[in-house]
């Protein structure tokens, strides 16, 4: 994230007290004096503004303090950067600033300005046909790239593995697309059905799914399975949303009447996929699911997440006979829910790479000193980035020097 620091007033200067009524006919000299008084007032206001200019460090500190109170949705909506919430009542702009934000990428869901033709985040074209054709547009292609379809030269049936034990399994269920935010807002929610639609469309067009991969169906997770990671109260709270048209756990974590079912399907699919991999029915797998899960803790739904799919998959692997499970989480946000569930468990090693910024980045957890507790010390590894803009080389370095050595030692011990 790029922070542009400009000139701003820490606290807007107070209005100059309203001067008394003047009798222009009786005291012309007083009128002239008023004119000088106005100039002096304007000069004082300008002087106070110059004295109240804050430095880049002050802006960053203010933004950090503000970030602690923001939700993920707040940060997503705050695309214009730092806003000055203090009083600046003596300054009136000539006109309202133009609305530059006009489109949201249908591939990665991120906002873009109207003069941008390709998404700044993923390079998908502004008029992308990805939902119809399933391709990712290159920023170097022509503007009419949305009319182009990705050709599948190979026959998918000829690419199937000889047995399912050599196959990559993919799980998907269209009922998970029924989970969406009912309330219409100027900024569409970043976690919306399009996130799965574009992935499924791309895989289908490339002949990967269905075709080269082994499909597995989704089932609804049982309450007994959910209780291995979540409290009874949490499970009941999610289930209750099926009786409401629209509801919210937090300001950015929504639910509708289909959300509880979607969450159970996502959790059930992840559990079955983990069991299938451990039992060697398939070689590996990819769960194409939503709502996401790593912010969901033992008792709380937050950060777009209802049930913790990764935690449920880990437990399913242990139930299937695995002695050790490693969860590698490289989402930009720390998986505070996953860490909470397993922080005292030696059978599950949790490693997370995430943006942290000394706790000012959502959800504020995941410092390097958080290593587990109550006998689980050392089985929680946090790699917190101190700022945004971390690139591939940083991740490769972290994987080579931290993630892989710890993972290898864990499974060899």
UniProtKB/TrEMBL annotation:
GO annotation terms (biological process): epigenetic regulation of gene expression
Domain named RanBP2-type: residues: 103-122
UniProt feature, compositional bias: Polar residues: 30-41
Short name of one Pfam family: Hist_deacetyl
A GO cellular-component term linked to this record: cytoplasm
Localization of this protein: Nucleus
Broad enzyme group: hydrolase
Gene Ontology molecular function: histone deacetylase activity, hydrolytic mechanism; zinc ion binding
Family affiliation: Belongs to the histone deacetylase family. HD type 2 subfamily.
Protein name (record): histone deacetylase
Organism annotation: Kalanchoe fedtschenkoi
Lineage of the species this protein comes from: Eukaryota, Viridiplantae, Streptophyta, Embryophyta, Tracheophyta
């Amino acid at each position: 994230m790029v922070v542009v620091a400009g000139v701003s007033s820490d606290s807007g200067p107070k209005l100059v007290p309203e001067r008394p009524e003047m009798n222009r006919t009786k005291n012309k000299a007083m009128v002239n004096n008023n004119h000088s008084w106005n100039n002096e007032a304007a000069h004082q206001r300008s002087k106070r503004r110059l004295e109240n200019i804050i430095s880049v460090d002050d802006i960053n500190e203010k933004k950090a303090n503000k970030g602690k109170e923001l939700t993920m949705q707040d940060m997503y909506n705050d695309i214009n950067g730092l806003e000055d919430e203090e009083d600046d009542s003596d300054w009136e702009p000539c006109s309202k600033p133009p609305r530059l934000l006009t489109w949201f990428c249908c591939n990665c869901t991120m906002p873009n300005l109207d003069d941008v033709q390709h998404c700044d985040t993923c390079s998908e074209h502004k008029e992308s046909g990805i939902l119809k054709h399933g391709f990712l547009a290159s920023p170097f292609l022509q503007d009419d790239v949305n009319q182009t379809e990705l050709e599948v030269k190979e026959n998918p049936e000829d690419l199937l593995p000889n047995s399912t034990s050599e196959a990559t399994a993919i799980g998907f269920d269209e009922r998970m697309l029924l989970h969406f935010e009912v309330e219409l807002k100027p900024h569409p929610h970043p976690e919306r059905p399009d996130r799965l639609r574009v992935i499924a469309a791309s895989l289908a067009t490339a002949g990967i799914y269905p075709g080269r991969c082994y499909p597995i169906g989704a089932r609804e997770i049982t309450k007994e399975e959910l209780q291995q990671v979540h409290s009874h109260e949490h499970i009941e709270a999610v289930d209750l949303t099926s009786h409401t048209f629209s509801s919210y756990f937090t300001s950015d974590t929504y639910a509708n009447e289909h959300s509880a079912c979607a969450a159970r399907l996502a959790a059930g699919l992840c559990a079955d996929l983990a069991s299938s991999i451990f039992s060697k029915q398939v070689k590996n797998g990819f769960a194409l699911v939503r709502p996401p899960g790593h912010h969901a803790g033992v008792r709380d739904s937050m950060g777009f997440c209802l049930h913790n799919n990764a935690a449920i998959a880990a437990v399913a692997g242990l139930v299937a006979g695995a002695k050790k499970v490693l969860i590698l989480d490289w989402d930009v946000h720390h998986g505070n829910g996953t860490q909470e569930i397993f922080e005292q468990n030696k059978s599950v090693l949790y490693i997370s790479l995430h943006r942290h910024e000394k706790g000012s980045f959502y959800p504020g957890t995941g410092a390097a000193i958080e290593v587990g507790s109550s006998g689980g010390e050392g089985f929680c590894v946090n790699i917190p980035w101190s700022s945004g803009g971390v690139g591939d080389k940083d991740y490769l370095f972290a994987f080579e020097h931290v993630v892989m050595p710890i993972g290898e030692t864990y499974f060899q011990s």
